[in-house]
## 1
Amino acid sequence: MTFHPLRALFARLAAGLAVTALATGSALAAYPDKPIKMIVPFAPGGGTDSIARTLGVAMSQTLGQPVIIDNKPGAGTIIGSDFVAKSAPDGYTLVVATFAHAVNPSLMAKLPFDTDKAFSPVALLARGPNILVVRADSPYKSVQDVLAAARANPGKLTFASQGNGTSAHLAGEMFNNLAKVQMTHVPYKGAGPAMTDLLGGQVDMMFATAAAAAPQMASGKLRALGVTTLQRSAALKDIPAIAESVPGYAVESWYGIFVPAGTPADAVAKLNAAANKATQDAEFRKRLEPEGLSVSTGAPAELDTYVRAEEARWRKVVKENKLKID
């Protein structure tokens, strides 16, 4: 039998290509084959952290890998978001984005990333109101009480937030602007620390996310004065809308998942399917619905459309009201 060097070379190349193709196909099919890191850009103990941990447990059951929560608070979510923006686009690093994700481009003169280009959407999770809350022993028993005190003592009343650019911050600034009062903003690195100081009497009030406020409301430690959505929440129907006292007032919180731009479509699809299934989980719904949050999931494009609309809406609000971070 005649030996043909070229034929032998081609055979080896073909075998090598077959092995490479098989390995590549196996790698794609195997995703995820290691733990997934879910970045929460707030300190532990707040509403976003709580939702992420409940979500992570449910998603891990579908994905077959642990979903590890990693808190990276600070700079109005920018530290955590920047970490994800600069992470490998391989489907193993996610960020739980909130209101700040859509507002920071308008509030910040310069971000370390381009929000519209640095991330790929995975899934919108939930939407709902913030709640204006005070301590149970606070002298303020209504939104009208707060308005009267703020008008009588400009700059004296303080409101906490989980960070600059967050829904709690902008909700307070919007209140100041539309009600023509002056209250002082005190930012923290998450809802947990902010709530601790609110309960401790270091600040007067907080336009807290429903997720952060609900446990303290249920325990009787906080009194709810109003919801930030234009109308009353179906799940919180006994709490008046702030708009009933401050016409035109409306702020909505939301939660969504993003990955670094360039993450393979196959990985995004699997994460989206896992997130959608997780939001149908009884424990997840039990965690959300009593707080006035409504589950709102769908295709990645739905999150993209929603966030772009929020960006445009708040860019207009920030510009018209000359809002700035402090």
## 2
Amino acid sequence: MVATILDGKAIAGDIRKELADETQAWKAKRGITPCLAAVLVGDHPASEVYVRSKQRACEQAGLESQLHRLPADCREIDLLELIARLNQDHAVHGILVQLPLPSHLHETKILDAIHPMKDVDAFHAENVGRICQGRPRYLPCTPHGIVQLLHRTGIKVSGKQAVVVGRSDIVGKPMAMMLMNRDSTLGPNCANATVTVCHSRTAGLGDITRQADLLVAAIGKPRFVTADMVKPGAVVIDVGINRVGEQLVGDVDFEAVKEIAGHITPVPGGVGPLTVAMLLYNTLLAAKLQNMSA
């Protein structure tokens, strides 16, 4: 058996086309262009690529984008003052601080400075709490993209055993919460899973992952998930993006695991494009919510 490849790039294209149409209709009705402001500290090469891709995606969907650059050695107060100005700017609906930040900057303090209504990454404590309670304002872009992928390919998670390998605030923890909640924005079949969260120090990790009907790998280690860790026929979602030499690889040993799994996402072309698409979704939603409350 060879796994069905889940084409995240194609599904992200569909979502972006839907968003472009919705954005155009909303702009015509309200006369307001949704705007995403990205903040880039330093000149980290990968961050440069990510920010440019997000800017291009905004332009293609009819959204406005801003890029604010600060030097790698900027003072924390300067970054906080920039975020405060963007919070007060009614023309800006979403704020994204590109991670990682230089080590002298306190990441949690910076992310908590973004107004919750403009927190389109859904990293602010208020938005995380709302997800935990099952009443989200925004959903984190990568987990939301994964749920969209499952929904649009007809893969149901309700009642299934799900294992998330990785406990980051960006992917692992919110992914687990979204899968275990009673419902989701896409209906009950996209939630109600029985979820186990594992990490690199989990004892008997392979014994746990082999029980998973849905396995989400988000641990940040190249080819960490091997074929002997996967249940035959499982759905395997690879969140990892790792550079090995000149090659981009995921957290899953793709060539081996695709012979065992029922469905699998590739790297690149799997989860990554969906993350960007859901950032656009959140920016449009933020503009709508702020216009309602104005």
## 3
Amino acid sequence: MRINYRSKAELAEMREAGVVAATILEEMCQAAKPGVSTWDLEMIARRGIEKFKVKSAFLGYASPPYPAVLCASINEVIVHGIPNKKDVLKDGDIIGIDFGIFKNGWCADNARTVCVGNVSPENRRLVDTAREALDKAIALCLPNNRLGDLGHAVQSHAESRGYSVVRQFVGHGIGRQMHEDPQVANFTENGRPDSGKRIKSGLVIAVEPMVNAGAPEVEILSDEWTAVTKDRSMSAHFEHTIAVTDNGPWVLTKL
């Protein structure tokens, strides 16, 4: 495992990428209303990429090549929902919007789950829990803490409210590439904190809890990308790119 630690100057450049990623994500979140298709959101993202003269982190990624610049994951879709014209948002849906870019060679990655119209109290509670879990993990992005502290914070908060945490996908280091070392799990194998690698100043990680209303198991659909809850329960996803500094967590993708 080779972990990169960034200088203050490099973090300042990464912050520039983070602001662009967050600005475009915010525009998509504001547009996520009943009657809007996930392809409409894709078009907003593409216009933002062109406007800010940045590069998509998602388009063409991996194999098979990812075919869009964002992931749009509705209801039981956990992550990697491919935007299309047929998926039109309805009142009461929840949608996870995941978006990343490169600016000046630095990657920024962020995601948010949006409540569309009048969402049930049950689904709103799920979304709130996933967001709170991310906030609890961010608060622990401090020098000398351990990565397991973050996973324990996410897992314990989600499970205390009756939810499960997806284990098949985890957060990650981020910098010159979208996915770098270390992996940042949203759980701990023994259910306890104080495990995993110790965190140092200059580390930049993307923390991204995925919280399911039902069981944690995942099913990948035939497009080889779309990941849904195996029991088709609802799922919520939040993500920020965070720098560990001597002055505390610096959320690079926060406006």
